[in-house]
Amino acid sequence: MNSIAVIGDVDTVTGFKLGGVKEGYAVESPEEAETTLRNLIKENFSIIIITEKIGDELREVIEGFTKSSALPMIIEIPDKSGPSERAVDPMRDLIKRVIGVEMVK
Amino acid sequence: MAQEMIEGINPTRMELLKLKEREKLAVKGYSLLKEKRNALIMEFFNILERVKGSRENVEEKLQEAFEDLTAAQVTMGDLAVNKAAMSVKESIEVDIDSRSIMGVVVPVLDTKATQRTVVDRGYGFAETSVKLDEAAKKFEESIALIIELGEIEKTIILLAGEIESTKRRVNALEHIIIPRIENTVKYIEMRLEEMERENFVRLKMIKKSMEME
Fold first, then answer.
1. Is B188 on the interface with A (CB under 8 A)?
2. Which residues of B are less than 8 Å from A2 in CB distance?
3. What is the complex's ipTM, to 2 decimals?
């Protein structure tokens, strides 16, 4: 428990290693990312940082894990190419659904 | 609206009493759930205040960090950067706790990301450039921000789920279950009154026919 892991492209993993996160897993395909993610969750990592690109690929898997319980915490971050322009921001979508009106986030 | 009722209820006094008891319970549950919903939404708005801008902060910080990383890779070469990255010591300690908002367990994180000096990081100086130090520092800062953002987003997701299900239950009680019970109670009362009147008339008739004899 109490550990942080990163899944992402090579540069992201290198960067986070520099920042002091030892558990970095560079993945290349969505399938690889999914197996890694499942393994990490099995190993009880409590915070898992993934890139937005992977997040978009594995949306359903992630939601399956995040909806139900407090941990693990899966955080999506932009990668080297900057924040991706997403058609639907999952956060904003959620807030809109709950409150019923668009909130300026 | 059509007068919806609970199916298969006999119009008896016993059922009437039972139904009235159920109605009382449903109304009580409804007001409690409504309070819960309101409290959750209030909490939700508080959290929304916190999330405002924090994602932008993370994005900005990361952007800078990646720029420095790229610069370091350019000056030192990928391999050297990787080597340096491998030897960096673990920096972040996170205490994970949880608290409960109206029965929703949300995580509370306490990060101890101490500001480290260049020496603490654990890579050598001979082959590394200043940009690498900058990048490392910025990544450290980003990680602290990311963890905070994660905590907030997780809380929002969990709260949102709870609000949705509470809302659904409140609406189900308000619009379906309570009206249905009310209608059934009304139906039974009407049937009982009708039976009473029938009985009354019957008695009158009997009395009349007895008098005739």
1. no
2. 93-96
3. 0.78
